[in-house]
Write a structure and sequence with these properties.
This protein is 45% helix and 24% strand. The protein is an alpha+beta fold.
Length: 251
């Protein structure tokens, strides 16, 4: 999981810059809509919705916007007849790195065209459904900051039936579990006094492709950045591994 966590670390750093872009509000609002639609529109009884609302508030989205998104997902917003559809696209970047793209859209033709252009203009190839998803398993992840006692984290993770955890930079840990166990893990870690800053679903690669060519690395990151900047795209996941030095040269 090291390569994936390395990229997750960069994405957290990028989020500071991305937060200034309007499309972040769009992505977070759409996540609320889908969560409200897939379960009850009450955060007290809908863990996915509660998590989406927490992320939206952390990004500074006004409460009125959050309430509007919940109402839209519940189907109670008057005059709104647009429905969002969850779609997953799969392909390869230069160098054979697998790329999973998760999107929410009210126009699948538009989104498919945008994703296809992003791949083709950056040396990648958009493939058929299932061409790379078999390499990944979806897991629940809790991001924990200020972990100064790894032994206590291990004890809390075991108590919450977590699968594994990984320490990243600056006393940050990522704790992995089955999707159905994510709420229990989050609640247990918080009850033990840990600073859980984010809760998410993530695709974890079963194998990794090492990127050693600088040009391929730049093309890969440009492709990821282009995809993430599309309004309809919610998440981009890859299975690359790369050295720290090459990663720094690629930005």
């Amino acid at each position: 999981m090291a390569g994936h966590s390395k990229w997750a670390n960069i994405k957290r750093q990028k989020a500071v810059v991305d937060a200034k872009r309007g499309n972040v509000f769009t992505k977070l609002s759409r996540a609320i809509i889908v969560a409200a639609r897939s379960g009850i529109p009450d955060p007290a009884g809908n863990f996915q919705l509660r998590t989406a609302i927490d992320k939206a508030k952390a990004a500074g989205i006004p409460n009125d916007n959050i309430e509007r998104a919940i109402a839209k997902g519940a189907g109670t917003l008057n005059g709104d007849h647009n429905s969002l559809e969850e779609i997953r696209y799969e392909g390869y970047s230069p160098g054979g790195v697998a790329v999973l793209v998760e999107a929410l859209t009210d126009n699948r033709n538009r989104t498919a065209a945008d994703v296809r252009v992003a791949f083709s203009k950056n040396g990648g190839n958009l493939g058929e459904t299932g061409c790379v998803s078999w390499m990944f398993a979806q897991k629940g992840v809790c991001i924990v900051k200020d972990v100064f006692d790894e032994e206590k984290l291990l004890e809390a993770s075991l108590e919450a039936d977590a699968d594994t955890y990984e320490m990243t930079d600056d006393e940050i840990a990522e704790v992995f579990t089955e999707i159905s166990n994510l709420e229990k893990l989050s609640q247990t870690l918080k009850a033990k006094g840990f600073n859980v800053t984010d809760v998410e679903l993530r695709w974890i690669p079963g194998n990794q492709i090492e990127v050693t060519d600088p040009d391929q690395a730049k093309s890969l990151f440009k492709l990821i950045d282009t995809l993430e900047n599309l309004d309809d795209v919610q998440n981009v996941t890859t299975n690359f591994d790369i050295s720290e030095s090459l990663m720094e040269l690629s930005f």
